[in-house]
């Protein structure tokens, strides 16, 4: 049965609707303070551990680092500018946010991007949904790892509503619109990826926070890497959703916010 708009799943997994247009948001501050990266660590649940290991094994090192930067930027943005979203380190939504951030580009991995006719966001969202609910897709068929209990394995499975929240956000993370609504997870992944990829929304994160995140997860030429991935997809799939973003490649390469760390 579909969860109603006022159900606990709506708030617990980030389905609370927000304006799609970032310009319609009302930040709590115009001068966000520094958020030490040590104060916004990744969650440490069995589910997060399983998905992190899988993402690390599939994504390029550059894309994995980008995903971690997006996670930290998103927490900093939510904590400083949108505290009413209740996305903070240790909060119930932190795990769903981490899963969204770490898997949002899973569709760009080698063998995945060119293994489907779907836009990478759509294939990636569906794949994320599958692996969140089916641990066997991310682990070997051999015996359980030493010390892993049946209880831990059970905890490593997402709730259906959680997997759907992650999938929705991945589907729409590059679907930037100025009308309608999006989920909290979708709005946050858009804000954080736009910051890392093209330098937008820089006013939502303190510069020292950005510097500390980049020190831990270096960009190492991320702009050129990301541009190459998008060009590869649009060469293989001219109809890909990313083709609708006019001038995207130029925006990526003209990322003035991140230029000093490139």
Describe the protein's architecture and organization.
- This is HD/PDEase domain-containing protein.
- It comes from Endocarpon pusillum.
- The chain has 262 residues and is an all-alpha fold.
- The chain is 50% helix and 2% strand.
- Strands 1-2 form a two-stranded antiparallel sheet.
- α7 crosses α8.
- It is globular.
Quick synopsis:
It is built from eleven helices and two strands.
Task: Identify the notable features of this structure and list them briefly.
262 residues, HD/PDEase_dom, two-stranded antiparallel sheet, globular, single chain, 2 strands, mainly alpha, HD/PDEase domain-containing protein, 2% strand, disordered N terminus
**Rg over CA atoms:** 18 Å
- Residues in helix, %: 40-55%
Strand order of the largest sheet: 1-2
Give the percentage of residues in beta strands: under 5%
Q: Which structural class should the secondary elements be placed in?
A: mainly alpha
Order of helices and strands: HEHHHHHHEHHHH
Total number of helices: 11
Terminal-residue CA separation: 47 Å
- The dominant shape is globular
What is the residue-averaged pLDDT? 92
* Count of distinct strands: 2
**Can you summarize the main beta sheet?**
2 strands, antiparallel
Uncertain spans: 1-6, 141-152
């Amino acid at each position: 049965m579909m969860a109603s708009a006022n159900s606990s799943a709506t708030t617990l997994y980030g389905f609370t609707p927000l304006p799609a247009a970032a310009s319609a948001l009302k930040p709590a501050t115009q001068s966000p303070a520094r958020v030490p990266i040590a104060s916004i660590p990744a969650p440490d649940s069995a589910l997060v551990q399983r998905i992190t290991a899988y993402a690390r094994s599939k994504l390029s090192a550059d894309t994995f680092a980008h995903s971690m930067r997006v996670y930290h930027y998103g927490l900093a943005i939510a904590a400083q500018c949108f505290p009413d979203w209740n996305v903070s380190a240790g909060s119930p939504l932190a795990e769903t946010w981490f899963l969204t951030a770490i898997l949002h580009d899973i569709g760009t991995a080698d063998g995945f991007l060119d293994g489907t006719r779907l836009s990478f966001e759509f294939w990636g969202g569906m794949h994320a949904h599958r692996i969140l609910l089916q641990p066997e897709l991310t682990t070997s068929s051999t015996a359980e790892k030493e010390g892993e209990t049946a209880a831990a394995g059970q905890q490593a499975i997402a709730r259906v509503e959680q997997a759907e929240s992650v999938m929705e956000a991945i589907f729409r993370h590059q679907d930037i619109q100025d009308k309608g609504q999006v989920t909290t997870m979708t709005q946050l992944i858009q804000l954080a990826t736009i910051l890392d990829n093209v330098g937008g929304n820089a006013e939502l994160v303190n510069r020292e926070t950005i510097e500390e995140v980049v020190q831990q997860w270096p960009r190492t030429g991320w702009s050129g890497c990301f541009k190459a991935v998008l060009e590869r997809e649009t060469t293989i799939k001219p109809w890909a959703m990313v083709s609708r973003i006019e001038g995207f490649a130029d925006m990526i390469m003209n990322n003035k916010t991140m230029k000093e760390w490139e």
